[in-house]
Amino acid sequence: MAEDGKEESMATDDDSDKTAEDGANSLNSMVEEGCTLLRRMEICVAEAEKRSGKNAVNMQETFTVYLIETRPMDALNEGRNPAPDSLWRRYSEFELLRNYLIVTYPYIVVPPLPEKRAEFVWHKLSADNMDPDFVERRRVGLENFLLRVASHPVLSNDKILYHFLTEVLGYSAADSRLKALSATFRVRNPDKRFMEMKHYSDELQSHTSQLLRARARVADRLYGVYKVHGNYGRVFSEWSAIEKEMGDGLQSAGHHMDAYAASIDDILEEEEHYADQLKEYLFYAEALRAVCRKHELTQFELEMASQDLISKKQQREELATGIVRTFSFKGMTNKLFGQEAPEQREARLKLLEELIAEGEDTVKEKTVECEEHVERAWVDMQRFKEQKDKDLREALINYAVMQISMCKKGIQVWGNAKECFLKM
Amino acid sequence: STQEAGLTNGTPVETSSPASVSSLFNRLQLDDDLDADSRDPYGCTETRDLFVTVDDPKKHVSTMETYITYRVSTKTTRIEFDLPEYCVRRRYQDFDWLRIKLEDSQPTHLIPPLPEKFVMKGVVDRFSEEFVETRMKALDKFLKRVADHPVLSFNPHLNAFLSAKDLNKRQGLALLTKVGESVKHVAGGYKMRARPPEFCAMGEYLDTFSQKLGTIDRIAQRILKEQSEYLTELREYGTLYSSWAGSEEELRRPLEGVAGCVTTCCTGLEDLSENMSQDFLPVLREYILYIESMKNVLRKRDLSQAEYEGRLEAAVLRKQEDRTPIPMEVEKCQDKVECFNADLKADWERWQSNKRQDFKQLLTGMADKNINYYEKVMQPVINDTLTRFK
């Protein structure tokens, strides 16, 4: 099951240092030890285009498609510049790929996709999926997704992923296991570490979503403050018309006020990038949660199987010895309607033995599945934790740098205005 | 001990016009010298011989009412004053009295405005620190402007205000009704022919200027509102970083760092907004009142011109009829108009010059406060947070 999508390593596993050139791969830091797809192939989502066509219910619709370009890394390393292979895919196809990965690698924290619909918008940004800024940020997000997947030590070896990048193929929907992930059930002995991780994923999700909402509101307000200052520009200009000595100073100061008001657009545009980084981890939190839930599911299945086995063994004992230890419906009917014939008892005992044998196999299987999942998932969750700490630390630093830049701009503009006022 | 001015023994001190035209011209000459100083009003202090300050507000509670008094301190070398130093306590009513007396006794001059007299009792707290502070600054400015004025500063009412132990204000009411009548008398019969062009220009300037100041006031209030809402959102935003930090290990320090920066931002914003409402807006509003005063003076000037033209016309007609000579009153009116025009022009120049200084100071101050805000916000980000990050 989990092995379906895996393939033999495509190329020879090079231990030679074929490190990607800095210019060729902007996310150098994602390339890890071991053979990941990203080391062998340069991937990018180059463009976005609008298309229209008929959908599943034969209605006309407009949607955006994204161009995936790939180039072999060894060619680039040799200094050649071959034309890339490319194909167009739309967002829903990326969704299918991701769902497939979630189901196939339930112990992996699968990188998230950028948002399906624009959320956390503040008033200047539109919530329109066709808005060019949204499309552009989504293009970047999709590229980010592919790079993360292609640099993951486990996911990058997937055959279906390779086909997604290079061939035009359709994808079937995820199997029922995906549905199982959303079911509710109670587990008796879950791994404590997983429960802690699940709790952490809830916290991460809650904190990032609250932060994103608050940030959007703050952006909205800050926009208002800056833009109102633009009115000073106009009134200073009008005022300067009736002044003699003060006129020039007022007029120039007015221009600086206009510049101040205009500066907020770039500032907030840059901040969107920070918001996108937070969003990625908002969605990542969900992926983390899914892995924890998967553990619960496998553990639950194991417990159910064990419980079933125990009860069947008990039934066998009762049947063999005639002693009813536990209350059961069968036991009661036997008492009420009398014991059954020995042949029937034999038949039932034989059936039970078969079921018990099956049950023991199931328990063995489930135990292995559970242990494997725990082992692999723990590895990937550690990897995820390190990645998260590194990425978010960087994001916070960049945010701080953005704030410094904003302050510097503010000082400059007001300094210029002050110069003009002094000349009044 | 202070010698009581003529006020308290009932002698009317009111001077309805300057002593003589020549002494007025002398004072105008003095004004020319002072014009040079008004470009740098606080620079050259040698020619200034009267210094006044309003400070130290105190609350007084009596059975009848509660009110605030301010300390008015005077230092002077002028012989018109008996002592070189005075220190008295005055309340708003007293300033108002002074202003009315000045307006009545110097109708041809521009009297600086007082801060608003009436405040909505439910809306504004008349005894809050901010309100009292703002009002006090405005009263201080008013008194300083009067003290700096080459004619007004010699007014005996000012003298009384600055030096008398108890101001006897009963005189004011009687005079008020007298002035009221004479104004009515003038307004009743006469219409001015045409406002001379230089005063037209003044009127137009005042209208436009007043409009622009009103706009700036509205913009400033809007900025305050937007800043206040920004501050509210920012506070919540900061706490979210702190609470996230609680569930992280490696990321705790950078997250707390960001939370700290947001807090600094909030404090800075509070200061900025306070400055805007305590310092910027009051000065702006006071100038709008000043403009109204100016317009009133222009109107009064128009009235006196109208009176003169009316009387002159009547007298000329009578002369044509029965050769009655032009009465002295008409000549007196002409003098009055000419004095008025001269006073007004002189006051206008000094007002323009002061306005330029005041607004230069006001706007530069606004720019400075904004620069300080950004510097204050930037500092912890550079110093503290980046080291936390590393």
TrEMBL record, chain A:
<protein>
    <submittedName>
        <fullName>Sorting nexin 4</fullName>
    </submittedName>
</protein>
<dbReference type="InterPro" id="IPR034902">
    <property type="entry name" value="PX_SNX4"/>
</dbReference>
<dbReference type="GO" id="GO:0032266">
    <property type="term" value="F:phosphatidylinositol-3-phosphate binding"/>
</dbReference>
<comment type="similarity">
    <text>Belongs to the sorting nexin family.</text>
</comment>
<dbReference type="InterPro" id="IPR001683">
    <property type="entry name" value="PX_dom"/>
</dbReference>
<dbReference type="GO" id="GO:2000786">
    <property type="term" value="P:positive regulation of autophagosome assembly"/>
</dbReference>
<keyword id="KW-0653">Protein transport</keyword>
<feature type="compositionally biased region" description="Acidic residues">
    <location>
        <begin position="1"/>
        <end position="16"/>
    </location>
</feature>
<keyword id="KW-0813">Transport</keyword>
<dbReference type="InterPro" id="IPR036871">
    <property type="entry name" value="PX_dom_sf"/>
</dbReference>
<dbReference type="GO" id="GO:0031901">
    <property type="term" value="C:early endosome membrane"/>
</dbReference>
<dbReference type="InterPro" id="IPR037430">
    <property type="entry name" value="SNX4_BAR"/>
</dbReference>
<dbReference type="InterPro" id="IPR027267">
    <property type="entry name" value="AH/BAR_dom_sf"/>
</dbReference>
<dbReference type="GO" id="GO:0015031">
    <property type="term" value="P:protein transport"/>
</dbReference>
<dbReference type="GO" id="GO:0005886">
    <property type="term" value="C:plasma membrane"/>
</dbReference>
<feature type="region of interest" description="Disordered">
    <location>
        <begin position="1"/>
        <end position="25"/>
    </location>
</feature>
<dbReference type="GO" id="GO:0031201">
    <property type="term" value="C:SNARE complex"/>
</dbReference>
<feature type="domain" description="PX">
    <location>
        <begin position="44"/>
        <end position="172"/>
    </location>
</feature>
<dbReference type="InterPro" id="IPR034783">
    <property type="entry name" value="SNX4"/>
</dbReference>
<dbReference type="Pfam" id="PF00787">
    <property type="entry name" value="PX"/>
</dbReference>
TrEMBL record, chain B:
<feature type="domain" description="PX">
    <location>
        <begin position="48"/>
        <end position="169"/>
    </location>
</feature>
<dbReference type="GO" id="GO:0000407">
    <property type="term" value="C:phagophore assembly site"/>
</dbReference>
<feature type="region of interest" description="Disordered">
    <location>
        <begin position="1"/>
        <end position="20"/>
    </location>
</feature>
<dbReference type="Pfam" id="PF00787">
    <property type="entry name" value="PX"/>
</dbReference>
<keyword id="KW-0813">Transport</keyword>
<dbReference type="Pfam" id="PF09325">
    <property type="entry name" value="Vps5"/>
</dbReference>
<dbReference type="GO" id="GO:0015031">
    <property type="term" value="P:protein transport"/>
</dbReference>
<dbReference type="InterPro" id="IPR015404">
    <property type="entry name" value="Vps5_C"/>
</dbReference>
<dbReference type="InterPro" id="IPR027267">
    <property type="entry name" value="AH/BAR_dom_sf"/>
</dbReference>
<dbReference type="GO" id="GO:0000422">
    <property type="term" value="P:autophagy of mitochondrion"/>
</dbReference>
<keyword id="KW-0653">Protein transport</keyword>
<dbReference type="GO" id="GO:0034727">
    <property type="term" value="P:piecemeal microautophagy of the nucleus"/>
</dbReference>
<dbReference type="InterPro" id="IPR001683">
    <property type="entry name" value="PX_dom"/>
</dbReference>
<dbReference type="GO" id="GO:0032456">
    <property type="term" value="P:endocytic recycling"/>
</dbReference>
<dbReference type="GO" id="GO:0035091">
    <property type="term" value="F:phosphatidylinositol binding"/>
</dbReference>
<comment type="similarity">
    <text>Belongs to the sorting nexin family.</text>
</comment>
<dbReference type="GO" id="GO:0061709">
    <property type="term" value="P:reticulophagy"/>
</dbReference>
<dbReference type="InterPro" id="IPR036871">
    <property type="entry name" value="PX_dom_sf"/>
</dbReference>
<protein>
    <recommendedName>
        <fullName>Sorting nexin-30</fullName>
    </recommendedName>
</protein>
<dbReference type="GO" id="GO:0005769">
    <property type="term" value="C:early endosome"/>
</dbReference>
